[in-house]
Amino acid sequence: MLARVIRKRSRALLRDAPGAFKRGHDDELHALRIDVKRLRYTLELAVPIARDEAHGALDLLALLQERLGDLADADTFGRTYDGLAKALPPNDPRRPGLETLGDRAQRERTRALEAVRALWRGAEPPYPERLAASISATLGSLSNVVA
Predict the structure, then answer these.
(1) Which domain holds residue 79?
(2) So what's the pLDDT on residue 49?
(3) What is the pLDDT of residue 147?
């Protein structure tokens, strides 16, 4: 059963991530972050059986989860600063500071999105191939014990 859940979650992640990264929509990236978290925590259940093989996939997922977390933080800060600025009257002296913080959060979001895109397509072999291979190794270890 554990292997089936890992396969299902990893296929969904590998299928959905490229489109989410390309479009860059907050809601899709947030859903992807949750998918990464669920796959990572499911793989942690395999550690007592798969040991070293599971750690490769877990490290890759932790890195992706961290990058997506940076992106989510920038999104949240940007929305918060923009909302606060819009709630103030146009001549409020706090407004320029909040707008500056909102602009900074937008720049950080752009940087974080590029970082996650670079992670996904960078290195040799690319991240999706390394993740798939690590998950396959984990599943192989599980099947050797279960069989």
Answers:
(1) 50-63+70-142
(2) 85
(3) 46
Identify the residue whose tokens are 């929509």: 25
Contacting residues for 17 by C-beta, under 8 A, at least 6 apart: 32, 120, 128
Please tell me the total number of residues recorded for the chain in this structure.
Answer: 147
Give the separation between CA 42 and CA 45, rounded to whole angstroms: 5
pLDDT of residue 122: 86
Domain-located, residue 83 = yes
pLDDT at 6 over 70: yes
Q: How many domains does the chain have?
A: 1
pLDDT at residue 143, rounded to an integer: 78
